């Protein structure tokens, strides 16, 4: 019996194949954006590419990680980015129905042949920093984790670069290897899509998964703007007022007045 | 997706905020400046200034660049007469900011509808700026602005009104990039523009060129011919190296059409893609790098203190026997005694030496300013030589504007260079103080490992007014609990001093130079002369004018210098005093903490242990983030 963290089946309907060699991040965002829009308002790949190119987010080399969520902003979808994330954090996001994009090294997922395998082996054997020597070069949506066999969890992704990329499964180890190349970076929406129905697939005990290690990660997530139901104060004992984020860019009108006067 | 070689300011800002939270939790300190700085850095402000002659399409260029049709007025009979400062906002908004006569007077501003924009921002609606508009702030929901871009649209550099030119000059030193706009249809870059550019490039090298109205040229060959002609003029007459000129041809009309229909082909043909890519991939990345360096420097200064406290608490948490706890208590008493002893016997002496050195620097810099700016000084004589080469009084008066502009730009250049030297020298004596502190602390207690504080300063020029010095203030300090106290003292002092003083130093250029330069450019008047005045009298009259203006600049520059040095002295004294007081307080808190631990229940101890584990995890994440950022920056 299938047992998922997240909602990969629904999301596989929104998988899209990229038609340009460099616009994986654009298409990944497009497929997520369309899950938040009414069917009549959904955007095409061409529209998404236009927006990305006309704002400098998509160039010949592709999309840089800092712009990988910029299209979500255009369509008013709040989101956050996390670096150095853990699989627990990823699982938490998925369980809440958040839509997630990660940076991966495509060669670690796709079969690149003997030369690619050899290069990856060299990086691994010499313990080289993957993010530095073999950085991420592809964006995919992570839609779920298949826990049917707890000893062999499989990560489910929608891969815009794979013609058969809808709901593709990869062993967790392999996925983590590929994800490590982006230093475990992800972008996630703050909320599930409007028509999200909380399913009963995952009935895992979160308190057992979110141990002390993940609680600190949860704090990082909260600081990044994710509405977390778990109260970090009891775990972290921090006073109020410090590091509180203000809506928007975090600056008050008075601060902007001062900036503009001196600019 | 592009490979990960970009600087993620938002991640850095998050690491900074996390650091602030840990500082609050572990050290009981709330540094609002640091928190504010983290938000500024996360914002990644980039000042893009648009300059050029009137009616060259500057406002159309901006509207099309941002994809915001009709944001700024662009009709044929409209001439921009004031500065527009454009930033991100969730919806379009226009706010007029009025000039304030008094320095600390409350800001006067008024939000206006689009229909009233021409009443405040154009020559027709607000002749000679009767309404005393300082600038108009514009908010627009353009995604390009959301990345921290702020665009400053200036009035034309030539044209009828010299005040416009003066306004434009004031913004040159602060710009992170300047797009100089010319067009494809009217004449190529002309004499006025060349003269302006020659002076502009003395103040900043960040000047790039945009040729608008590409669709109105007869053909693509005509467009290209205009471009080559302009580059030739820039090379031969403005002193620019043609190979290094960044030059773009655009059509705002085509971009507008492309945006309307989302047509990629029109977008390519509009010529805006290379401009946007240049802005996003090159200019902003460079600025982001500087901001990242600033953020890293400020964060590292705090990380040292936080780690010291974490290590102490972890040691206390693992001291389970009475013997171990007694040892900690004894060592705390000893550290307290040593600190008080140092405070009593050495602090005043160190600060006195610092003060003397600072005074030396101030005297030297002040002399340099005087040498250049004083009436009948170096700059005045340079201009006089040029005057005397002219033949008649009419020649002199017809070139008075050029002569005065030459005087101003030379003065601007000199002041800017003096400002950079000033920063270098102030940092140098602060570094010396830092090293002496390090030596003091290791000598006072033989069991304290030597703390190596080494700081190197690299000046990165004058084009940015925020502090953007790539400095490494502290190497890996081997902090034990007690040596760490002294290390923390120094770290706190210099973290605090650097944090508060260095912005002062950084703004010396912006403040001293900016005020003096602005005073020069803002004070322009035309001087009339009598017909058939002889040359000698003309020279004498202009000489008087030049010296008077230089004198004004000198007074302002000296005033700002004096204020800046006063602040450095005061801040350094305060930071030392505060650091000692805080370290004493922490020793007391640690002693109290030991007493409290002895009486804690098992449940309370477990809770504290868990909180400590979380703090350690958070700290390690910050370290990791800093390391990752280091890799990208280096």
Structure description:
The complex is a heterodimer of chains A (263) and B (634). Helix content of chain A is 38%, strand content 13%. Chain A is built from 13 helices and seven strands. In chain A, strand 4 and strand 5 form a beta hairpin. In chain A, helix 2 (24-33) crosses helix 3. The N and C termini of chain A lie far apart (62 Å). Chain B has 634 residues and is of the alpha/beta class. Chain B has three domains: 1-42 and 304-318 and 603-634, no CATH class; 44-270, Rossmann fold, CATH 3.40.50; 319-599. Chain B is built from 19 helices and nine strands. Chain B has a nine-stranded mixed sheet, with helices on both faces. In chain B, helix 7 (191-203) links the parallel strand 7 and strand 8. In chain B, helix 1 runs antiparallel to helix 19 (602-633) and helix 17 (481-522) runs antiparallel to helix 18. The longest helix of chain B has 64 residues, at 535-598. Chain B starts with 8 loop residues before the first helix and ends with a helix. The chains are: A alpha+beta (263), B alpha/beta (634). Chains A and B meet through helix 3, helix 4, helix 11 and helix 13 of A and helix 1, helix 2, strand 2, strand 5 and helix 5 of B.
Please give a quick description of this structure.
The complex is a heterodimer of chains A (263) and B (634). Chain A has 263 residues and is an alpha+beta fold. Chain A is built from 13 helices and seven strands.
Return the structural class of chain A: alpha+beta
Please give the share of residues in helix of chain A. 25-40%
DSSP strand count of chain B: 9
**Gyration radius over CA of chain B:** 29 Å
Determine the N-to-C terminus distance of chain B.
22 Å
């Amino acid at each position: 019996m299938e047992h998922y963290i997240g909602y990969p089946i629904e999301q596989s309907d929104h998988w899209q194949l990229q038609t340009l060699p460099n616009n994986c991040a654009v298409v990944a965002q497009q497929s997520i954006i369309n899950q938040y829009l009414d069917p009549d308002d959904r955007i095409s790949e061409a529209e998404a590419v236009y927006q990305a190119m006309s704002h400098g987010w998509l160039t010949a080399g592709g999309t840089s990680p800092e712009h990988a969520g910029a299209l979500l902003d255009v369509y008013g979808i709040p989101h956050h980015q996390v670096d150095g994330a853990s699989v627990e954090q990823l699982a938490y996001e998925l369980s809440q129905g958040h839509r997630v994009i990660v940076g991966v090294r495509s060669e670690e997922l796709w079969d690149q042949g003997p030369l690619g395998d050899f290069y990856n082996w060299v990086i691994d054997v010499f313990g080289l920093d993957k993010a530095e020597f073999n950085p991420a070069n592809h964006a995919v949506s992570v839609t779920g984790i298949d826990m049917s066999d707890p000893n062999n969890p499989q990560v489910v992704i929608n891969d815009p670069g794979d013609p058969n990329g809808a709901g593709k499964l990869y062993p967790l180890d392999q996925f983590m290897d590929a994800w490590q190349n982006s230093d475990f970076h992800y972008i996630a929406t703050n909320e599930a899509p409007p028509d999200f129905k909380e399913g009963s697939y995952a009935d895992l005990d979160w308190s057992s998964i979110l141990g002390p290690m993940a609680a600190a990660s949860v704090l990082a997530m909260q600081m990044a703007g994710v509405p977390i139901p778990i109260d970090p104060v009891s775990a972290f004992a921090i006073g109020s007022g410090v590091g509180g984020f203000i809506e928007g860019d975090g600056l008050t009108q008075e601060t902007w007045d001062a900036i503009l006067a001196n600019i | 997706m592009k490979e990960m070689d970009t600087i993620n300011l938002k991640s850095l800002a998050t690491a900074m905020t996390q650091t602030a939270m840990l500082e609050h939790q572990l050290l009981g300190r709330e540094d609002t400046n640091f928190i504010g700085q983290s938000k500024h850095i996360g914002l990644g402000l980039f000042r893009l200034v648009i300059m050029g002659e009137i009616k060259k399409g500057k406002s159309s260029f901006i509207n099309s660049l941002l994809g915001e049709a009709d944001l700024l007025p662009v009709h044929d009979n409209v001439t921009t007469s004031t500065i527009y400062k454009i930033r991100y906002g969730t919806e379009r908004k226009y706010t007029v900011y009025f000039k304030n006569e008094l320095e600390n007077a409350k800001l006067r501003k008024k939000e206006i509808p689009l229909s009233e924009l021409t009443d405040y921002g154009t020559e027709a609606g607000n002749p000679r700026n009767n309404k005393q508009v300082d600038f108009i702030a514009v908010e627009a929901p353009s995604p390009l602005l959301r990345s921290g871009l702020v665009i400053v649209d200036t009035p034309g550099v030539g044209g009828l009104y010299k005040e416009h030119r003066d306004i434009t000059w004031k913004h040159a030193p602060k710009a992170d990039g300047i797009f100089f706009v010319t067009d494809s249809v009217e004449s190529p870059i002309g004499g006025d523009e060349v003269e302006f550019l020659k002076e502009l490039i003395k103040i900043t090298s960040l000047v790039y060129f945009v040729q608008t109205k590409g669709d109105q040229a007869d053909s693509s060959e005509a467009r290209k011919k205009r471009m080559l002609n302009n580059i030739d003029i820039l090379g031969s007459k403005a002193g620019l190296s043609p190979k290094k000129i960044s030059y773009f041809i655009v059509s705002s009309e085509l971009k507008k059409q492309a945006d309307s229909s989302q047509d990629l082909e029109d977008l390519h043909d509009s010529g805006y893609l290379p401009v946007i890519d240049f802005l996003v991939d090159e200019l902003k990345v460079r600025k982001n790098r500087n901001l990242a360096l600033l953020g890293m420097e400020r964060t590292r200064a705090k990380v040292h203190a936080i780690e010291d406290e974490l290590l102490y608490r972890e040691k206390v948490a693992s001291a389970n026997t009475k013997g171990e706890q007694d040892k900690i208590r004894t060592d705390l008493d000893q550290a307290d005694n040593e600190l008080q002893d140092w405070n009593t016997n050495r602090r005043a002496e160190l600060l006195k030496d610092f003060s003397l050195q600072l005074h030396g620097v101030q005297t030297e810099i002040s002399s340099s300013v005087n040498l250049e700016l004083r009436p009948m000084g170096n700059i005045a004589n340079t201009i006089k030589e040029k005057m005397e080469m002219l033949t008649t009084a009419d020649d002199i008066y017809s070139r008075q504007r050029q002569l005065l502009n030459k005087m101003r730009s030379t003065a601007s250049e000199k002041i800017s260079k003096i400002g950079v030297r000033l920063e270098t020298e102030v940092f140098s004596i602060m570094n010396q103080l830092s090293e002496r502190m390090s030596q003091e602390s290791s000598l006072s207690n033989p069991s304290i490992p030597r703390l190596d504080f080494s700081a190197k300063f690299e000046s990165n020029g004058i084009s940015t007014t925020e502090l953007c010095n790539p400095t490494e203030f502290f190497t890996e300090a081997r902090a034990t609990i007690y040596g760490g106290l002294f290390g923390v003292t120094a770290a706190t002092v210099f973290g605090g001093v650097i944090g508060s003083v260095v912005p002062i130093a950084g703004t010396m250029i912006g403040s001293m130079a900016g005020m003096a330069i602005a005073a020069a450019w803002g004070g322009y008047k035309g001087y009339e002369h009598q017909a058939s005045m002889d040359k000698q009298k003309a020279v004498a009259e202009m000489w008087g004018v030049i010296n008077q203006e230089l004198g004004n600049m000198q007074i302002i520059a000296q005033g700002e210098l004096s204020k800046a040095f006063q602040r450095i002295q005061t801040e350094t004294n305060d930071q030392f005093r505060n650091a000692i007081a805080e370290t004493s307080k922490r020793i007391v808190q640690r002693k109290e903490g030991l007493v409290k631990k002895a009486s804690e229940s098992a449940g309370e101890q477990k809770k504290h242990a868990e909180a400590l584990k979380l703090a350690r995890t958070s700290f390690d994440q910050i370290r990791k983030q800093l390391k990752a950022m280091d890799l990208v920056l280096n």
